[in-house]
Amino acid sequence: MNGYFPSIYASPIPTQYRMTLTVGEHSARHIRRIARMHLENWELQHLTETVELALTELIANVIRHVPDSRCTLLLLKQQTGVRAEVTDAYGELLPAPAKSDPESEGGRGLLLLDALVDRWGVSPTAAGGKTVWFECTNHCRARGRNPL
In the predicted model, what is the mean pLDDT of the chain? Predict the structure, then answer.
């Protein structure tokens, strides 16, 4: 009798993804694709749009504000959702949402992040850099979207 017998040695789906890279103008697109793949594997597809947008904002901040544009991305599946971290070695600018001039073309990324995700923050690293992180639970959604 032929049949399918799953390997008892098959590894479980990884619950985290880590990558260190130098980001550039096309990096956000690739990182969104990576995040989408992991969210699908973790059966968290409903968080995809929010996580992709939030990651795009964090990567854009690295490109704009980190002199060498190097960072480490961590995606971590949690019991109730996902946590994403972007760590860089440049601790000079600790991000905080700022009131921006209505006519300025930038400066709204962290306000957008704050509106999208359940929690976010900034943690200094032992090496003098910083980690900007956010968490989306299973109830996290893009607020203000048209429900149609």
Answer: 84
